[in-house]
Amino acid sequence: MSKRQLAMVMDLNKCIGCQTCTMACKTQWTNRDGRDYMYWNNVETQPGSGYPRGWEDSGGGFDAEGDLRPGRIPSLSRDYGVPLEMNYEDALGMTPEGDAPPLSERGKDRPWLRPVERSAHGPNWDEDEGAGEYPNSYYFYLPRICNHCDDPACLEACPRQAIYKREEDGIVLIDQSRCRGYQNCIAACPYKKIYFNPLFKRSEKCIFCFPRVEQGLAPACARQCVGRIRFVGYLDDEESPVYKLVKKWKVALPLHAEFGTQPNVYYVPPLSPPKYDAEGRPTGERRIPDEHLIGLFGSRVPEVLKLLEEGREKKRQGEESELMDILIAYRHEEMFTLDADYYKKPG
Description:
13 strands; 5-stranded mixed β-sheet
């Protein structure tokens, strides 16, 4: 057991899908050396197939008896998507003389614009598609990183004991000197948040930006988030927004808790506009089906959505709401309760 557990809460009501977090992570950790296809942080559209494609149905995690469930290793071309390069001459419709046709003619009969097999796409091929029929179509964004689980299936599956949880904060890491690239961890992780580096023949994953955390700085994805959706702190710190959202107000829920790994990344589920009837009148029914959210975050979703609606109504009436004040995040720095001195203490 770790002495403390570092955790993250993401408020899905504020995620705008800008991918700033994704780029902050990629430029810092995965922009070269066999990591082109790796997105330690990604933002996918729900409902959707996610990244890698179909990860929710790829197995892994633990069964009801606590035994590892079989899982598959995603395919680079089919599930992750090979990084693509744009053919700019075709994309812009340039003629051999270097002239571009009128905008109204551009793209006609251009193969680069035609629908292609989904396996030919790169990450987020179904971004912003969602589900439902107009005027009741809907989607929302789901950012994902490694969950740094209390009971990591990847750790359990590794025959080399290369994966471990840090005693000081529960961050899950891979010892590169011990890893031999067997990929058992990839199959075992139900969130498919471990990646195989084909250049070095090793597994790699999100490290929760522990070099930053040890300096009292938030992970890059959280610090650069323009929507202020990410809270970072220790689950035993009662003054932390993370503690209050997870344990006091209990509005932050784990993703697919049924996988059995006890994840330490939590989500505040999204509210949504009402549906409209055939005459265009709001029905009062939430557009995002509760069933879909329950499938992701568990049976407490309706209770949590009710708490959020009550908190919003309080603010509309000019009343106090600690919950809403936390989620609004008036001061960015208060979203991160990290302790650099903690890492300097002996033992």
